[in-house]
Amino acid sequence: MTESPKKKQSERVDTGGGAYVGGGVQVTDGDFVGRDQIVYGDKVHGLAGEELARLFTAVYRQIETRPEDPDVDKEELTETVQKVEKEAAKGEAANPSKVERWLKTLALMAPDILEVTAACLLNPVAGVATVIRKVAEKAKAEAGAA
Q: How far apart are CA 8 and CA 134, in angstroms?
C-alpha cells in the first residue's frame, strides 16, 4: 500500500500589512523591512565600499602619472592615500582625526593629490560618513586658502 501524500494545510497569516516570508531570509548589505522604514539623516544604499574603491582608482592613476618630484615619493603618496581610503571605508566607525591628519599631509606633499582624494570622499556615491566628508571639505578649503 502506498501512503497518500500529505496535504499542505493552508494557514491564514495576518501581518497587518507587513511582509510575510514563509522561509528563511538572508539580507546582504541592506535592510529587510517588513513595512514602513523611517530614516533620519543620510542613508546610503548600494555597495559603498566597492564604489569608494572604484573612485580611488582615479587617485592612484593620478599618482602614477604624476611627474617625478625629488621631494615627494610616489610610494609615500600611495601609502597615505591608501590609509585615507581604508579609514573612510569604515563608515561611521572611521576616525576623523586620522583622516584629517593624512589629508593635511597630502596637502603639504601634493595639493593635486589632495584635490582628487577629497573629491572621492565628497562624492555621494562613495557613501562615506558625514564626519569624514566634513573633514575632506575642511582640508580642501584650507589647502585652497594656503
A: 57
Give the chain's domain count: 1
Give yes or no for a contact between 88 and 128, defined as CB atoms under 8 angstroms apart. Answer: yes
Tell the burial category of 127 from Cβ atoms under 10 Å away from its Cβ (0-12, 13-18, 19+).
Answer: buried
46: left (phi over 0), alpha (psi -120 to 50) or beta: left
Take residue 39 and report the three cell numbers written for it: 530614516
| Inside any domain, residue 1 | no
- For residue 109, the SS3 value is helix
Residue 43 confidence (pLDDT) above 60: no
Burial of 29 (0-12, 13-18, 19+ CB in 10 A): exposed
Gap between the Cα atoms of 62 and 67, Å rounded:
10
Domain presence at residue 111: yes
Amino acid (one-letter) located at 41: G
pTM: 0.65
